[in-house]
Amino acid sequence: MTAAYIVDARRTAGGKRGGALRDWHPADLGAAVLNALVDKSGIDPVAIEDVIVGCVSQIGEQSFHVGRNMVMASKLPDSVPAVTIDRQCGSSQQALHFAAQAVMSGTQDVVIAAGVESMTRVPMGTPVILPMQAGIGQGPWSKAILDRYGVTEFSQFTGAEMIAKQYDMTREELDTFALGSHRKAEAAIEADAFADEIVPLEVTDADGNRHHHTRDEGVRAGATMEGLASLKTLKPDGVITAGNASQICDGASGALIVSERALKEHGLTPLARIDNLTVTAGDPVVMLIEPIRATRRALERAGRVIDDIDLYEVNEAFAPVPLAWLRELEADPERLNVNGGAIALGHPLGASGTKLMATLVHALKARGKRFGLQTMCEGGGIANVTIIESLA
């Protein structure tokens, strides 16, 4: 079986809801990343054999096959096919897995994995809310499903509260972690740590001035514990707030995945080699705890232990998720989300998988480190894990 390599990984800077990226159609947003991957790598776009795109809210401007629409909005030729997939928050991480598997199987040599989500233009929950408002159907879960699990709905907010309770996490502990995310992200921005991964986008500010958007909008410079403590919990007796949960975000991201043959044929230099691809599923009620089991399986299959991993990107959907992961894996917190995470930088749903990969590969390169691990909790109790070896 041939190896799969990451030649480049790029992302847009995150846009807050109604913020800098509000005027960007999702297809154009994703197309900007596709164009950047082609431009930066220098590959002939005709050589691209497929584009696999993750997107969660596939309705409205993200409907009718947003992956193909991204290709049509880009400089790629019509001969490049595309497919749009949904594995909830892990959609573009799964897109990367599918791309790598195509390369590793020898089926294809050059594939782009990408993701897009405009949470301003297609608000979270729209695919469920609109049909229900129109009186169409009963929602995504049949009575048989709800009866099986003894619930009236599946809620990630409830899952986060359940994890916090299971691990006796206090509100202060969660807010402390959230503050750390903002401070790390702020430091990374000041150090220009994201320069090699961000695709500049032309935007218009509130005063009508045009400029390039290159800075993640969600990072709260000068955030304090007092400010976080002032936020209301989502549930009266809970510990989850808007401050210790991921931010709604607009964005797109992508990675160019190729075979060794393509490296030689096109004169490409890889950033990393794919070391392991794992996906598991478990409890759909607690839902967000699955990255722990998935990571253990990935490490076992890769023949590694957690101490072998130099940097980890664990998606900060809610603060209890990476905190529980750290405890169970007995992992080093200094290696976790070293440039901040979704609490500060935002979580553009379907785009977050390859977004985190862009940050991970460039962080490994910048620090001269070897192995990186990325994992993501996903709706339905699923989790993806990707282990990479930096070659830069």
UniProtKB/TrEMBL annotation:
It comes from the Bacteria. The keyword Transmembrane does not apply. Gene3D superfamilies: 3.40.47.10. It holds the Pfam family Thiolase_N. The keyword Transferase applies. Residues 5-260 form the Thiolase N-terminal domain. Keywords: Acyltransferase, Transferase. Residues 268-389 form the Thiolase C-terminal domain. Belongs to the thiolase-like superfamily. Thiolase family. This is Acetyl-CoA C-acetyltransferase. It comes from Sphingomonas kaistensis. The lineage of its organism: Bacteria, Pseudomonadati, Pseudomonadota, Alphaproteobacteria, Sphingomonadales.
